[in-house]
Amino acid sequence: MMRDPAAVVRAYDIRGVVDEELDEELAERFGAGFVGLVDEPEVVVGHDMRHSSPRLAEAFVRGVLGQGRDVVRIGLASTDMLSYASAALGRPGAMITASHNPPEYNGIKLCRAHAAPVGWGTGLRTLLDAARTPPPAPAARTGTVRDRPMLAAYGDHLLSLAAPDGVPVRRVTAVVEAGGGMAGLTVPAVLGGLSVDVIPLNFTVDGTFPHPDADPMKPRYTAALRARVREARADVGFAFDGDADRCVVVDEHGETVPASAVGTLLAGRALARQPGAAVVHSVVTSRSLAEEVTVLGGRPVRSRVGHSYMKREMARHRAVLGVEHSAHYYFGDFWNADSGLLAALHVLAALSATPAPVSTLIDRRTRYTTLPETTIGVADPDERLREVARVASILPGNVCDWLDGLTVHRPDGAWFNLRPSNTESRGLLRLNVEAPDASAARSLRAEVLALVEAEATPPAAPDPSASPAPRAPSASVSLTAPASRLPRLPRLP
């Protein structure tokens, strides 16, 4: 019996549990449907290190070939290498990966030629409809496959985009955590020729996910990296996720640098080359990023979370940079695609040009307390969002918007965002909170959680990144109001 494609087609990619939700038959149907969507003579296909990736990639390739189209197979790759191949060859692409999800998951990230994104409104809805119908009849001509290594050309291109500013004033020591993922392939190939001393951690590409957690935003993932940076007295540390499109930065003290702060460093470099340009940021990045972009003379632009939305806004505003709270960084000169390694190269270039440490470079950009993202399991995400909005909207000075889930901006400078997960279970909500100080941030998170959890079911596992928070409300950030005063709000957009 064919799997239901609706279970795996999400807002900006395809993702699900292998053989339970996503199997080879379905992958082949997606391959055939993708040909009809993009209508190109050739498709680029790459895959990550997951044990299920080669067979799912081959199934996707069969679907393409059966429709008479050809395939350029780049083999083991990072997601940003697939983006490079798509742009360099002028062909649409498919990357078989589930990014940071556990090993039992897999998925497909799709793009049109030149790495243009394919999301729900730009093709995934059409692809879902195609996968639900019987596959089209095989073409009279079966397509052909050619293998093309892309690692060297990809590395050369990244290095050309992040050249040091002048003659380096020092040699930088960097600890790099690959986590058994694709950075173990790409980092040595790209950083090997630079004046950088690399201390590698878990560089053996391993689809069994030997590292605790698969998400570099989680403290357990970066624990060994942070300790090694301190022990080696390194200048900086980098942690990559499984498909290496994200990069978390650790300073010389072994402290994680917030993605928004890294984003302001990258924005400074980008806006120096293109003054006045736009910088796109997701709705859950720190407000300090938008403020700093304005100070630098740039134009901050808000976007929904997710690579297809970010890339769309990048193209629409001709932005030089895009920043997400999850350590995705998008570059206008990299076809608006995200690249963890390109972000790391820019940080290294900035460090090599000054004797100042990372903590000094980013200290002035840290103005607010941003709490780690909290995951909450709920039975009905829409109902919970409406309930929180009803409470928040009646309080004086609060401003609510629905660009991505619910964002509530408070007059005291605090804000929170509550949105459904687009990469994991459909019964999960993500909560992000920021306030002018830590006490206000913790109190605000506690009150939002109290509202959400009134009818919530706990997630499968606790979020280790979330620190304990006091449950008592704070008058300065109170959300509570008598139920009889709650207004009726329109249905979610």
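(the above was protein one; protein two follows)
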Amino acid sequence: MSDAFQALSRRVLPLAAAVGFALVATPALARGPDGIADVAEKVIDAVVNISTSQTVDAKNNDDKGGDERGNNNRRGANPQLPPDSPFSEFFDEFFKNRRGGPDSKGNSPRKVNSLGSGFIIDADGTVVTNNHVIADADEINVILNDGTKIKAEVIGKDKKSDLAVLKFTPPEKKITAVKFGNSENLRLGEWVIAIGNPFSLGGTVTAGIVSARNRDINSGPYDNYIQTDASINRGNSGGPLFNLDGEVIGVNTAIISPSGGSIGIGFAVPSKTVMAVVDQLRQFKEVRRGWLGVRIQQVTDEIAESLSIKPARGALIAGVDDKGPAKPAGIEPGDVVVKFDGKDIKEMKDLPRAVADSPVGKAVDVVIIRKGKEETRKVTLGRLDDGEKAVEASAKTTSPVETEKPVTQKALGLDLAGLSKDLRTRYKIKDNVKGVIVTGVDSGSDAAEKRLSAGDVIVEVAQEAVTNAADVKKRIDQLKKDGKKSVLLLVSNGSGELRFVALAVK
């Protein structure tokens, strides 16, 4: 559980260290449009501080590095302030309280307090925040802008989108709630306003612009963040990002920072995603996502050339779950999904998002390219458990020690052999895996670069099944004659998990 704004730690070099520049006097200009103050005044009472407490073992303290996304920032690190700074005493006290005070020694359980942000979306006291703000909390309190502190309960939370919905009983006085706007209408350069609780400094308003949309920061399968340069810091997690109409168009969730402080690169979950997740959490107390039942990988330029797809696009089906919805619909490994339920699939990551956004049980049209031709398949979606599984194209198997050199043929820098009983035992290949086994890979070859290794099994060459090394060599020689620049291999590991690998034909 984190009391602080999640930071993606990266090394960032100062601009002055890379390029020379001269200081030029410029006229003082107002930062942003005049309407920022009006928007802040209208919505600030809907923004709340989230205070949580958790009982932990003393050994699981703040001195361990990292946060929920594997960052190297230490949660216990104080901001670097000059010794004579008027804020030094405040921050010393703040971080001392977070660690449980100066007397929290030994191994006895202790309370850890955390702080984050959230916002009210209706008069009944429903609050939206980040999951990592309240995860594992024993007690959660909502603190209104006037200082009123009220106990809250969790209605539902979703780790994949890092969102949570809370509920508290409003005081007798009327409370302010805010509405969601349409994040799809955001334009690059549009002004936005962030309000939150950085470093326990509640009710903090900052402004900036939309720097980018649809950002993938590798934090999860459904990354689709709004990037902004509005100043957001630790403690802003779960706070709203407003447009100039006072509508919530994002939930501030992560920053890129080498130190934990703002450097002008922050990320917010777009309101389109938030609204869908919040609706399901309020209705079901969980998120129910659609499931296609496939394993996918990126369509690289080499794979696209091998499949005669121009330009490279879509999501390549590397495997189909025997119990999944795609199987009875006739979707097969080697198909490339280019459209799902009317939405273009431009790259691999678009497919899990589109599927997850679709209701369970919905019948959708899936447009695939198979052997150069488009086909449409009707699929009735199941319910997601583990998600559309992305395949690492460079997955590597461990090569066991050989006891006897098998009879092999050479092709594309690979030593190939038939799958004998001895080779199955030596490389731990399951009986249901059929094809031609790789027994060696030339150092420096394209195959080595793509991380093929001894123990991999070639199932298909150019979407045709192969059963012996001669088949593989024959197919490759034919592709060379046809002028192909690369050959597409369907490769299995010993357990039967498939992936596609495109190798250059030389």
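Reviewer note on protein two: The radius of gyration is 27 Å.
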